[in-house]
Amino acid sequence: MIDSIDIRQLIPQRQPIMMVDQLVDADEQSAVCQLTIRQDNFFLQSDGTLAETGIIEHMAQTASAHCGFLALQSGSNDEAPIGYIAEVKGFSLLSQPKLGDTLTTTIRTLLSAGNVTVVSAETNAQDRPIATTQLKISLKE
Amino acid sequence: MLKDKYFKITDCTKEEGQGATYTVSLLSDCKVYDGHFPGEPVCPGVCNIQTVKECAQLLVGEQSLRIQSVKRCRFKTLMTPLAVPQVSIDINATKHDNGYTVTARIYDAQTEYMDFNGEMTP
Fold first, then answer.
1. CATH class of A14-139
2. Which residues on chain B are in Cβ contact (under 8 Å) with A12?
3. Is residue A80 within 8 Å of A9, Cβ to Cβ?
4. Is residue B25 part of a domain?
5. Are A17 and B44 an interchain contact pair (Cβ–Cβ within 8 Å)?
6. Which end of chain B is less crowded, N or C, counting CB atoms within 10 A of the terminal residue's CB?
7. Burial class (CB in 10 A: 0-12, 13-18, 19+), B66
């Protein structure tokens, strides 16, 4: 089962900046990750909301987990691949997430060429849409 | 949120109109580098966006701004706190009915690291 994979096998980030709890679904072209916003979240603001930059990092780490999943599927035993955000384009905040919310993000690969991947990302909380964007990720060579 | 944890403002020059240049030190002992990445500190791109937002709050005198939209934000060169201890941030904030259109650029003498164009609202 996909959701039983330890997330640390899929992403290179570690605390305090792990912004996905688990991969819940994935195929060749898409992935879904979840994150519950807890008190110790690095991007939690004093008013109990998650900073928009935390949402973007959560989306980027969902893309990262997708790369890690594909690497794992291809039989790689290496550590999870490191990727960097190269571009954020067309980010739109629909509702601010807050402490206790569980975010579910779906990323879809739009383009993949060499070390560069472009994905669309859509984030929802339990009851409402949170944000959408497009991200360009470059993988470390 | 990240001010004096991830970055520290060492100088600010207001410009004509609605702009300013902030000189910012990157704090290499920030705990974020424990995880990004273990043994290989790299400035998280989103922390640089957060730094721009916090400088924009100071520039326009708002307690807090939220990033309502990002038209485009490009990360042109990787930043690490050890190789890049200090950067300049040019910010321009144009007020309109619902908030501010913010453009910003992070750079030093040699290199351009990031540019940002987005909408922020109080």
1. alpha beta
2. 37
3. yes
4. yes
5. yes
6. C
7. middle
Using CB atoms, which residue from B1, B34, B73 is nearest to A45? B1
Asked whether B113 and B89 are in contact (CB, 8 A), the reply is no
Q: Identify all chain B residues contacting A16, using CB atoms and an 8 Å cutoff.
A: 31-32, 34-35
Q: Residue A126 class from Cβ within 10 Å (0-12 exposed, 13-18 middle, 19+ buried)?
A: exposed
From B117, which residue of chain A is nearest by alpha-carbon distance? A89
Q: Distance (Å, rounded) from C-alpha B50 to C-alpha B44?
A: 10
Give contacts of A133 with chain B, Cβ < 8 Å.
70
Structure tokens, A80: 């999870």
CATH number at residue B33: 3.10.129.10
- What is the predicted ipTM? 0.97
CB neighbour class for B17 (10 Å; exposed up to 12, middle 13-18, buried from 19): exposed
The β-bridge relationship of strands A30-36 and B99-107 is unpaired
The number of domains in chain B is 1
Is there a domain that residue B74 lies in? yes
CA distance B97 to chain A (A): 18
Q: Which domain holds residue B46?
A: 7-121
Q: What is the pLDDT along chain A (141 residues), one digit of tens a residue?
A: 888 899 999 999 999 999 999 999 999 999 999 999 999 999 999 999 999 999 999 999 999 999 999 999 998 878 889 999 999 999 999 999 999 999 999 999 999 999 999 999 999 999 899 999 999 999 987
List the single residue in A16, A51, A84 with the smallest CB-CB distance to B1.
A51
